[in-house]
Automatic annotation (TrEMBL):
Gene3D superfamilies: 3.30.590.20. Belongs to the glutamate--cysteine ligase type 1 family. Pathway: Sulfur metabolism; glutathione biosynthesis; glutathione from L-cysteine and L-glutamate: step 1/2. One of its GO terms (biological process) is glutathione biosynthetic process. GO terms for molecular function: ATP binding; glutamate-cysteine ligase activity; metal ion binding. It holds the Pfam family Glu_cys_ligase. This is Glutamate--cysteine ligase. Keywords: ATP-binding, Glutathione biosynthesis, Ligase, Nucleotide-binding. The lineage of its organism: Bacteria, Bacillati, Bacillota, Clostridia, Eubacteriales. GO terms for cellular component: cytosol.
Length: 384
């Protein structure tokens, strides 16, 4: 009988959006939630980032997201502003409309950090918005499978193994949730305007999106070796801090995402590839989060492997390719990407065959693959 504790966990969301005025232009007013820990901004002042409390289910975290969303919308209505519920930014004239987040007082260091990011990456990259899904297994489950060994050590090794699996499969949830193929021409050309279709289903996850100037490769022998491999890049000046590690998956300590806080061990894992879904009132479908949860459960049971530098570079390559709008010729481990995705979903369906709710979640994702395949066939018939 399967250990039912495996489904228990902690769930949290971070949702980034931009603030726009009544004309759909980037807001130029000050951030209206200066002292609210749940409503902040990431890079720019005209951004809203909602940070939910830690919850015990996807349903609860969606309720918290809804609560925060309503609070923001009410305040913005009073300012005659709106939320821009798209991952790609609206029209803007130039970089002067993208003010760096103006953290003050004890938080001034956050502003200085963002000014350094501006010099390294430019402002426009920081306009991309999305959703980060934070998850951890319940300690009760982890203790039940730890065989009496030192729990802290076991927990750290568990999340290192899970990181490797999720990193190698990060292309799959991206493939299933990419939702930003259209962008305004001003994103790349000053003075231009009007929407255009890019070659990407998700620009922010593509080769043009949120990446370091190099591909970081990390070590996984232990948590200390993992942390040391990040610190090496900081020492070399390639990263300002652990927060600048722009990979689709992150291990996170409790509290601020700093190298020092890893001294207390891994707290949770973060999936960073979710586009804002403009067809969903809250920007995300709950079943996509349920699928991410099931994927973490499924991958946590898969055999460990050596995550070589070559495999890590390949994982980034696969992730960027999954962000393409036209997937013709894109393969994962030599198999066409849509076929490979179907194989994994079939295995997950078999794994969770005893739960109708989970079967429905997986069927929901499978239908997206069918839609992509049908679209490809139709386009081939129309355009040859």
């Amino acid at each position: 009988m399967k250990n039912q504790l495996i489904y228990k966990g902690n769930f949290g969301l971070e949702r980034e959006t931009l603030r726009v005025d009544k004309n759909g232009r980037l807001s130029q007013t000050a951030h209206p939630f200066e002292d609210d820990g749940e409503i902040t901004r990431d890079f720019c002042e005209n951004q809203i980032e909602l940070v939910t409390p830690v919850c015990s289910s996807v349903d609860d975290v969606m309720k918290e997201l809804d609560r925060l969303d309503k609070k923001v919308r009410k305040a913005l209505d009073d300012m005659d502003e709106r939320i821009w519920l798209y991952s790609n930014p609206p029209h803007f004239s130039d970089d002067s409309e993208i003010p760096v987040a103006d953290f003050k007082g004890d938080l001034s260091s956050k502003r200085f950090y963002r000014e350094k990011l501006e010099l390294r990456y430019g402002k426009r990259l920081m306009l991309f918005s999305g959703i980060h899904f934070n998850f951890s297994f319940d300690d009760e489950y982890l203790k039940s499978i730890s065989s009496g060994e030192d729990f802290s050590e076991f927990k750290n090794r568990f999340y290192l193994r899970l990181y490797k699996q999720l990193s190698r499969h990060s292309w799959l949830p991206l493939l299933l949730t990419a939702a930003s193929p259209i962008h305004d021409r001003s994103l790349y050309e000053d003075g231009e305007k009007g929407g255009t279709v890019s070659r990407y289903s998700s620009i922010r996850s593509s080769e043009k999106g949120y990446w370091n100037s190099f591909v970081p490769t990390l070590k996984f022998d232990s948590l200390s070796s993992y942390v040391d491999s990040i610190q090496k890049y900081v020492n070399e000046g390639k990263l300002f801090s652990a927060s600048e590690l722009y990979l689709p998956i992150r291990l996170k300590p409790k509290g601020e995402n700093s190298i020092e806080n890893f001294a207390n061990g891994v707290s949770h894992i973060e999936l960073r590839m979710f586009d804002l879904n403009p067809l969903e009132p809250l920007g995300i479908n709950a079943d996509d989060l349920r699928f991410a949860h099931l994927l973490a459960v499924y991958l946590s049971e898969q055999p460990d492997f050596e995550y070589t530098d070559e495999l890590q570079v390949q994982a980034v390559h696969n992730h960027r390719n999954a962000a393409l709008l036209d997937l013709e010729g894109v393969t994962i481990d030599g198999t066409p990407i849509l076929e490979r995705a179907g194989q994994i979903l079939d295995k997950m369906s078999e794994r969770f065959s005893d739960n109708n709710e989970y079967q429905n979640v997986i069927a929901y994702e499978k239908a997206k693959l069918s839609d992509r395949i049908c679209s490809k066939i139709i386009n081939e018939k129309i355009y040859g």
